[in-house]
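Troubleshooting: if your tokenizer reports a length mismatch, compare your output against this known-good record of 156 residues.
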Amino acid sequence: MESWYNNPYPEGTTQHEIWEVLIKNDFEGFLSKGWDFVKGDFIEEGFFGIDMAKSNNPQDWKLTYPSLGAYRDAWVKDSLDFAGKQFISDPREIFYRTTKLENFDFQDNQVLVHKVFNGVLELVNGETIELKWRSLFLLRNKQGWKIAGFCGYMHE
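Known-good structure output:
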């Protein structure tokens, strides 16, 4: 396996487990168009997602995902749309190489984690998809670390 694919945190640590959820499972599920790959990584009750629209203006921020079902539907649609594109480089490698986790803030049985994207995907038609945002994930330890909600797509 390529080095960029490997979890950078020591096995057996909380950070290792969270990386598996927020990076590996998300990317592998998204690239394979498989929500079933990630559905066990979420806490459905009380889940929400705020879309910050890559904007610094709070007027642009919306509760786009008021439920896990709303987020799932958007995630699946985005995954299918993404799969229809042709890239110059392997998107899997770009995702793994240009995304990292930062600022693990543990409080009791919860953690706030920053997932930072900083890269570009180039399509064969000359277009680009800029991966330049930060998402804040709230996870709870409920028989393993699970995503309870997020504020996503913050301008970087």
